[in-house]
From TrEMBL:
It is an enzyme of class 2 (transferase). PROSITE patterns: SAM_MT_RNA_M5U (PS51687), TRMA_1 (PS01230), TRMA_2 (PS01231). It comes from Anopheles maculatus. Its EC number is 2.1.1.35. It catalyses: uridine(54) in tRNA + S-adenosyl-L-methionine = 5-methyluridine(54) in tRNA + S-adenosyl-L-homocysteine + H(+). Belongs to the class I-like SAM-binding methyltransferase superfamily. RNA M5U methyltransferase family. Coiled coil: none annotated. InterPro entries: MeTrfase_TrmA_AS, MeTrfase_TrmA_CS, RBD_domain_sf, SAM-dependent_MTases_sf, TRM2_met, U5_MeTrfase_fam. Gene3D superfamilies: 2.40.50.1070, Vaccinia Virus protein VP39 (3.40.50.150). This is tRNA (uracil(54)-C(5))-methyltransferase. Keywords: Methyltransferase, S-adenosyl-L-methionine, Transferase. One of its GO terms (molecular function) is RNA binding. One of its GO terms (biological process) is methylation.
Length: 520
């Protein structure tokens, strides 16, 4: 029907309603006209404009009007709780709690295996007996080498606190929960001093600026957010100022940009390490647009950091693990469990700027990386050249579409003792089932290392790797061998988890998962 939809939300099973979202009123009215009264599967559709949900900010203010206001020290505790909820615990207690949480995740994994794959029940029981109730071995958590001031990237909100004072810091909650207030970050443990200095400098700037801070309530104002990136190796600081231009003239924009440069490139800015300034135009993104327009205002276009002796270029939007020193532990764990040799080819899925793949390069024959972000691939190629690494190739595109072609590029010949190892480091939501299917069906791929920043969300991927053969999953199932937790996020509940999956070489493929297990 060629409707210009933005989002379609299906309600719970059995509901007669669906919600369809549009980017503008004209598209919505055209869709209502086309759908209302339309005959579909013997039924007549009814289409009408949905009533908006109650504004959470208005609801919260109504509730607050019937009670006394909260003391300001409660707001302070709230911003701590929302960003560093474990900071009240000694670090050894934080590690114990995180190890216990990873045990819970693996127990959930085992229960899902038991209920969804009956042919694996005897195997799961055996693993539980050998590993304290877990479906695979779990090694002790690896602590972060640095607990305070470890973050190399933070996104700070620009707004007002409960007293109406302009602030650069963190929200005490989300708009959906009825919160707009921005509070100071000066007391937070995980933010390095150079970032705190940068935030304080820019906060003074916005407080005296003629341009108002942005309000999510009225959609008015200009300064909305500031992203700060820093290098532990060099001390370099990159600042990205996010602004709503509203209807500013060209001259007003030039005035604003000049003032930002004057503030951040000042002597105080240099003392904080600021060497790179970007101007980000925040706007409603069009379909297919993943990033906002960005303009380089001052200094270096990139900063550099080091991991395992390699130097990496970091562009404004590049993914880079936020705890550089702990990332070295994470990547070394991945290398150790993968155990590559000079006959191994590495398939680096969601490779980003090439950090994991380049760290593997010295231990293997060749590396093939893929990522959907084109700028990340450009950075990966630069990083390979910067470090004189010649056995890595990187490709921009969706891993769902490129895995098969990468397998052809690898051209692994098992008869010559060559092996293929996949390293998977996906976003929080995990891999799409198409990528899992292609990895399962890849001949010669008998070892897979899954690095997860959100283990609770990755369980479905792990289950799919171990499902019995089917028309879709033709390759033999993998087996979870070993898990290692690495603490990249001290003072927070988040943990990275590395899991090694293996399967026997497919000399005589069998359709039954239990037969594959019997040979392990």
């Amino acid at each position: 029907m060629k409707l210009s939809t933005n989002k379609i939300k299906i309600m719970k099973p059995g509901s007669p309603f669906i919600f369809i979202c549009f980017r503008n009123q004209e598209d919505r009215e055209a869709a209502i006209k086309a759908l209302d009264g339309y005959k579909w599967k013997g039924k007549e559709l009814s289409a009408f404009e949905a009533k908006p949900a109650p504004d959470p900010l208005v609801r919260r203010r109504k509730e607050a009007s019937t009670t006394e206001g909260e003391p300001i020290n409660i707001k302070r505790r709230t911003v701590e709780a929302s960003s560093t909820s474990l900071a009240y615990l000694p670090y050894d207690q934080q590690l114990k709690q995180k190890q216990s949480e990873m045990e819970n995740v693996l127990q959930k994994f085992g229960k899902e295996l038991w209920s969804s794959i009956p042919t694996l029940r005897s195997y799961v029981e055996k693993q539980r007996q050998e590993h304290g109730g877990l479906p695979c071995a779990l090694e002790p958590i690896r602590p972060s080498p640095i607990q305070d001031g470890y973050r190399n990237k933070c996104e700070f909100s620009i707004g007002k606190d409960a007293q109406g004072v302009k602030r650069v810091g963190f929200r005490v909650g989300s708009y959906s929960n009825g919160f707009l207030e921005v509070e100071t970050i000066a007391h937070l443990k995980h933010i390095p001093n150079c970032m705190k200095q940068t935030v304080a400098l820019f906060e003074e700037f916005v407080q005296r600026s003629p341009f108002e801070v942005y309000s999510a309530e009225t959609y008015q104002g200009y300064y909305r957010q500031m992203t700060v990136r820093m290098s532990h190796a060099t001390g370099q600081v990159m600042v990205i100022v996010g602004v709503h231009l509203q209807s500013l003239s060209e001259d007003e924009q030039k005035t604003m940009k000049a003032a930002i440069i004057e503030c951040l490139a000042s002597a105080a800015g240099k003392r904080a390490g600021i060497c790179s300034i970007y101007f980000e135009v925040i706007q409603k993104r069009q379909q297919g647009q993943y990033t906002n327009p960005m303009e380089h205002l001052y200094g270096d276009t990139h900063i550099e950091d080091k991991i395992l002796g390699l130097t990496f270029r970091i562009s404004p939007g590049a993914f880079f693990q936020i705890n550089t020193l702990a990332a070295e532990l994470l990547y070394q764990c991945a290398i150790d469990v993968a155990a590559p040799d000079k006959n191994s080819s590495i398939l680096d899925i969601c490779c980003g700027t090439g950090t994991i793949g380049l760290c593997f390069a010295r231990h293997c024959k060749q590396v093939f990386g893929v990522d959907i972000v084109e700028q990340a691939i450009k950075d990966a190629e630069y990083n390979a050249q910067r470090n004189s690494v010649e056995n890595c190739k990187f490709f921009a595109g969706n891993s769902d579409d490129l895995i098969v072609s990468l397998l052809r590029q690898a051209n692994v010949i098992p008869e010559q003792q060559e092996s293929l190892i996949a390293i998977v480091d996906p976003p929080r939501a995990g891999l799409h089932i198409r990528s899992i299917t292609q990895l399962r069906n890849a001949r010669g791929l008998n070892k897979l290392v899954y690095v997860s920043c959100s283990p609770q969300s990755a369980v479905k991927n792990w289950i799919d790797l171990m499902r019995p053969c089917s028309k879709q999953l033709r390759g033999e199932p993998f087996i979870a061998r070993k898990a290692i937790a690495v603490d990249l996020f001290p003072h927070t509940p988040h943990t990275e988890l590395v899991i090694l999956f293996e399967r026997e070489a497919e000399t005589n493929p069998t359709p039954i998962a239990e037969q594959a297990i019997a040979n392990v």
